[in-house]
Amino acid sequence: MASKPRWRSGLENAMALPENKGQMQYQLATVDTSGRPHVRTVGFSSIIEPAEHPHLPVLIGITDVRTPKVTDMRANPYVELCWFLTGSKDQFRISGPVRIIPSPHVESAAQGESTLALDKLSEQGFDWEKKRVAAFDSLPPFMRALWCKPPQGSTIGSYEVANEWLKTLSKSNQLESEEDKQNFELALRNFALLVIDPIHVDWVEAAASPQRRTKFMRNGEDWSEEFVVP
Ligand SMILES: Cc1cc2nc3c(=O)[nH]c(=O)nc-3n(C[C@H](O)[C@H](O)[C@H](O)COP(=O)(O)O)c2cc1C
Description:
- Helix content is about 25%, strand content about 30%.
- It is of the alpha+beta class.
- Strands 1-2-3-6-5-4 form a six-stranded antiparallel β-barrel, surrounded by four helices.
Protein backbone atom coordinates (compact mmCIF):
# COMPACT_ATOMS: atom_id res chain seq x y z
CA MET A 1 0.00 0.00 0.00
CA ALA A 2 1.35 3.46 -0.94
CA SER A 3 2.09 5.68 2.04
CA LYS A 4 1.05 9.24 2.89
CA PRO A 5 2.76 11.89 0.77
CA ARG A 6 5.34 13.76 2.84
CA TRP A 7 3.41 17.05 2.58
CA ARG A 8 0.40 15.42 4.28
CA SER A 9 2.48 14.29 7.26
CA GLY A 10 4.04 17.78 7.34
CA LEU A 11 0.60 19.43 7.42
CA GLU A 12 -0.80 17.04 10.03
CA ASN A 13 2.28 17.46 12.23
CA ALA A 14 2.10 21.25 11.91
CA MET A 15 -1.62 21.29 12.80
CA ALA A 16 -0.88 19.23 15.94
CA LEU A 17 1.78 21.61 17.28
CA PRO A 18 0.73 23.65 20.34
CA GLU A 19 2.15 26.81 18.76
CA ASN A 20 -0.33 26.43 15.87
CA LYS A 21 -3.33 25.81 18.14
CA GLY A 22 -6.51 27.39 16.75
CA GLN A 23 -5.01 28.12 13.32
CA MET A 24 -7.54 26.09 11.43
CA GLN A 25 -8.34 28.61 8.70
CA TYR A 26 -6.86 29.09 5.28
CA GLN A 27 -7.39 31.47 2.39
CA LEU A 28 -9.22 29.94 -0.55
CA ALA A 29 -8.92 31.36 -4.06
CA THR A 30 -11.45 30.79 -6.82
CA VAL A 31 -11.87 32.29 -10.28
CA ASP A 32 -15.23 33.70 -11.33
CA THR A 33 -16.95 33.39 -14.70
CA SER A 34 -15.18 36.52 -16.01
CA GLY A 35 -11.75 35.18 -15.07
CA ARG A 36 -11.31 37.37 -11.96
CA PRO A 37 -9.80 35.88 -8.80
CA HIS A 38 -11.51 36.01 -5.39
CA VAL A 39 -10.00 34.98 -2.10
CA ARG A 40 -11.55 34.50 1.33
CA THR A 41 -11.10 32.72 4.66
CA VAL A 42 -12.42 29.17 4.97
CA GLY A 43 -12.17 26.83 7.97
CA PHE A 44 -10.47 23.44 7.81
CA SER A 45 -12.76 20.57 8.86
CA SER A 46 -11.00 17.27 8.20
CA ILE A 47 -8.87 15.16 5.89
CA ILE A 48 -10.26 11.88 4.64
CA GLU A 49 -8.94 9.26 2.23
CA PRO A 50 -10.33 6.31 0.29
CA ALA A 51 -9.81 3.06 2.24
CA GLU A 52 -6.21 1.84 1.83
CA HIS A 53 -5.28 4.98 -0.14
CA PRO A 54 -3.50 7.30 2.34
CA HIS A 55 -1.68 8.81 -0.68
CA LEU A 56 -5.02 10.21 -1.99
CA PRO A 57 -6.15 12.52 0.82
CA VAL A 58 -8.94 15.03 0.29
CA LEU A 59 -9.51 18.17 2.35
CA ILE A 60 -13.01 18.77 3.64
CA GLY A 61 -14.39 22.23 4.40
CA ILE A 62 -17.91 23.51 4.92
CA THR A 63 -19.84 26.19 3.09
CA ASP A 64 -23.21 27.61 2.11
CA VAL A 65 -24.49 26.74 -1.36
CA ARG A 66 -25.81 30.30 -1.74
CA THR A 67 -22.41 32.01 -1.58
CA PRO A 68 -20.62 33.49 -4.58
CA LYS A 69 -17.65 31.20 -3.98
CA VAL A 70 -19.87 28.22 -4.77
CA THR A 71 -20.97 29.87 -8.03
CA ASP A 72 -17.27 30.39 -8.86
CA MET A 73 -16.39 26.78 -8.06
CA ARG A 74 -19.21 25.44 -10.17
CA ALA A 75 -18.03 27.51 -13.15
CA ASN A 76 -14.32 26.81 -12.52
CA PRO A 77 -14.00 23.71 -10.38
CA TYR A 78 -10.33 24.19 -9.53
CA VAL A 79 -9.05 26.06 -6.47
CA GLU A 80 -5.90 26.99 -4.61
CA LEU A 81 -5.67 27.53 -0.89
CA CYS A 82 -2.92 29.19 1.08
CA TRP A 83 -2.51 28.22 4.73
CA PHE A 84 0.18 29.90 6.81
CA LEU A 85 0.55 28.33 10.25
CA THR A 86 2.16 31.23 12.08
CA GLY A 87 3.47 29.31 15.12
CA SER A 88 5.73 26.94 13.18
CA LYS A 89 5.98 29.23 10.12
CA ASP A 90 4.85 26.54 7.70
CA GLN A 91 3.05 27.70 4.57
CA PHE A 92 1.07 25.21 2.50
CA ARG A 93 -0.34 26.16 -0.89
CA ILE A 94 -2.57 23.37 -2.07
CA SER A 95 -4.38 23.25 -5.39
CA GLY A 96 -6.58 20.82 -7.23
CA PRO A 97 -10.09 20.08 -8.41
CA VAL A 98 -12.90 20.94 -6.03
CA ARG A 99 -16.34 19.48 -5.57
CA ILE A 100 -19.32 20.88 -3.69
CA ILE A 101 -21.45 18.27 -1.95
CA PRO A 102 -24.86 19.91 -1.42
CA SER A 103 -28.09 18.63 0.09
CA PRO A 104 -29.62 15.96 -2.13
CA HIS A 105 -32.92 17.84 -1.71
CA VAL A 106 -31.86 21.03 -3.47
CA GLU A 107 -29.48 19.96 -6.18
CA SER A 108 -29.54 17.20 -8.71
CA ALA A 109 -27.09 18.95 -11.05
CA ALA A 110 -23.64 17.48 -11.67
CA GLN A 111 -21.52 18.00 -8.57
CA GLY A 112 -18.20 18.66 -10.28
CA GLU A 113 -15.55 17.04 -12.41
CA SER A 114 -14.46 13.56 -11.67
CA THR A 115 -11.25 13.39 -9.69
CA LEU A 116 -9.16 10.39 -8.76
CA ALA A 117 -9.63 10.50 -5.00
CA LEU A 118 -13.32 11.42 -5.10
CA ASP A 119 -14.08 8.77 -7.70
CA LYS A 120 -12.26 6.21 -5.58
CA LEU A 121 -14.32 7.21 -2.52
CA SER A 122 -17.53 6.91 -4.57
CA GLU A 123 -16.48 3.49 -5.91
CA GLN A 124 -15.99 2.37 -2.32
CA GLY A 125 -19.55 3.51 -1.52
CA PHE A 126 -18.55 6.47 0.65
CA ASP A 127 -21.73 8.00 2.11
CA TRP A 128 -21.36 11.74 1.42
CA GLU A 129 -24.80 12.61 2.78
CA LYS A 130 -23.97 10.93 6.08
CA LYS A 131 -20.71 12.88 6.22
CA ARG A 132 -22.52 16.16 5.38
CA VAL A 133 -25.16 15.69 8.09
CA ALA A 134 -22.53 14.61 10.66
CA ALA A 135 -20.43 17.70 9.84
CA PHE A 136 -23.47 19.95 10.34
CA ASP A 137 -24.48 18.25 13.59
CA SER A 138 -20.96 18.58 14.98
CA LEU A 139 -20.97 22.40 14.69
CA PRO A 140 -21.59 24.52 17.78
CA PRO A 141 -25.22 25.83 17.99
CA PHE A 142 -24.25 29.43 17.10
CA MET A 143 -22.57 28.24 13.90
CA ARG A 144 -25.46 26.00 12.80
CA ALA A 145 -27.71 29.09 13.00
CA LEU A 146 -25.54 30.92 10.42
CA TRP A 147 -27.02 28.77 7.66
CA CYS A 148 -30.47 30.30 8.37
CA LYS A 149 -29.45 33.91 7.74
CA PRO A 150 -29.99 35.60 4.34
CA PRO A 151 -27.38 34.77 1.66
CA GLN A 152 -23.89 36.15 2.34
CA GLY A 153 -23.27 39.31 0.37
CA SER A 154 -26.94 40.31 0.10
CA THR A 155 -27.60 43.96 0.98
CA ILE A 156 -29.15 44.90 4.34
CA GLY A 157 -30.45 48.33 5.42
CA SER A 158 -28.39 48.52 8.62
CA TYR A 159 -26.09 46.45 10.85
CA GLU A 160 -28.95 46.20 13.38
CA VAL A 161 -30.99 43.98 11.01
CA ALA A 162 -28.69 41.15 12.10
CA ASN A 163 -30.09 41.35 15.66
CA GLU A 164 -33.24 39.67 14.35
CA TRP A 165 -31.46 36.62 12.93
CA LEU A 166 -31.49 33.27 14.62
CA LYS A 167 -28.71 33.06 17.25
CA THR A 168 -28.52 29.32 17.96
CA LEU A 169 -29.81 26.12 16.40
CA SER A 170 -29.89 22.73 18.15
CA LYS A 171 -28.53 19.53 16.64
CA SER A 172 -30.79 17.04 14.83
CA ASN A 173 -31.70 14.94 17.89
CA GLN A 174 -32.49 17.91 20.14
CA LEU A 175 -35.08 19.80 18.08
CA GLU A 176 -38.15 20.50 20.18
CA SER A 177 -40.60 22.89 18.48
CA GLU A 178 -41.94 22.84 14.92
CA GLU A 179 -40.08 26.13 14.37
CA ASP A 180 -36.79 24.52 15.44
CA LYS A 181 -37.39 21.69 12.98
CA GLN A 182 -38.14 24.07 10.11
CA ASN A 183 -35.05 26.14 10.87
CA PHE A 184 -32.94 23.00 10.98
CA GLU A 185 -34.27 21.85 7.61
CA LEU A 186 -33.60 25.25 6.07
CA ALA A 187 -30.05 25.40 7.42
CA LEU A 188 -29.23 21.85 6.38
CA ARG A 189 -30.52 22.58 2.89
CA ASN A 190 -28.07 25.49 2.58
CA PHE A 191 -25.16 23.61 4.13
CA ALA A 192 -22.63 21.93 1.82
CA LEU A 193 -19.26 20.23 2.00
CA LEU A 194 -16.39 21.70 0.03
CA VAL A 195 -13.99 18.96 -0.97
CA ILE A 196 -10.56 19.60 -2.47
CA ASP A 197 -8.53 16.85 -4.14
CA PRO A 198 -4.91 18.08 -3.90
CA ILE A 199 -2.71 17.52 -6.93
CA HIS A 200 -0.10 20.25 -6.38
CA VAL A 201 1.30 21.24 -3.01
CA ASP A 202 3.93 23.89 -2.31
CA TRP A 203 5.30 23.67 1.26
CA VAL A 204 7.55 26.38 2.66
CA GLU A 205 9.24 25.72 5.98
CA ALA A 206 10.14 29.29 6.81
CA ALA A 207 11.46 28.52 10.30
CA ALA A 208 14.09 26.08 8.99
CA SER A 209 17.62 27.38 8.56
CA PRO A 210 18.22 27.55 5.69
CA GLN A 211 14.56 27.83 4.73
CA ARG A 212 13.11 24.94 2.76
CA ARG A 213 10.58 24.88 -0.04
CA THR A 214 9.28 21.71 -1.65
CA LYS A 215 6.90 21.25 -4.55
CA PHE A 216 4.84 18.07 -4.62
CA MET A 217 3.02 16.94 -7.75
CA ARG A 218 0.61 14.08 -8.17
CA ASN A 219 0.66 12.23 -11.47
CA GLY A 220 -1.95 9.49 -11.46
CA GLU A 221 -1.57 7.97 -8.01
CA ASP A 222 2.12 8.81 -7.67
CA TRP A 223 3.52 11.81 -5.85
CA SER A 224 6.85 13.31 -6.87
CA GLU A 225 8.64 16.12 -5.11
CA GLU A 226 11.32 18.61 -5.92
CA PHE A 227 13.22 21.10 -3.79
CA VAL A 228 13.00 24.69 -5.03
CA VAL A 229 14.35 28.08 -4.03
CA PRO A 230 12.20 29.48 -1.17
C1 LIG B 1 -12.79 33.50 10.39
C2 LIG B 1 -13.68 33.19 9.20
C3 LIG B 1 -13.95 31.87 8.89
C4 LIG B 1 -14.77 31.57 7.80
N1 LIG B 1 -15.01 30.27 7.49
C5 LIG B 1 -15.77 29.98 6.40
C6 LIG B 1 -15.99 28.64 6.02
O1 LIG B 1 -15.50 27.69 6.64
N2 LIG B 1 -16.74 28.42 4.91
C7 LIG B 1 -17.27 29.45 4.18
O2 LIG B 1 -17.94 29.18 3.18
N3 LIG B 1 -17.09 30.73 4.53
C8 LIG B 1 -16.35 31.03 5.61
N4 LIG B 1 -16.16 32.32 5.97
C9 LIG B 1 -16.82 33.37 5.19
C10 LIG B 1 -16.03 33.67 3.93
O3 LIG B 1 -14.69 33.97 4.26
C11 LIG B 1 -16.61 34.82 3.13
O4 LIG B 1 -16.51 35.99 3.87
C12 LIG B 1 -18.04 34.65 2.76
O5 LIG B 1 -18.33 33.31 2.45
C13 LIG B 1 -18.38 35.45 1.53
O6 LIG B 1 -17.46 35.10 0.53
P1 LIG B 1 -17.81 34.88 -0.97
O7 LIG B 1 -18.67 36.08 -1.31
O8 LIG B 1 -16.51 34.89 -1.66
O9 LIG B 1 -18.50 33.58 -1.11
C14 LIG B 1 -15.34 32.63 7.04
C15 LIG B 1 -15.03 33.95 7.36
C16 LIG B 1 -14.22 34.23 8.42
C17 LIG B 1 -13.90 35.67 8.73
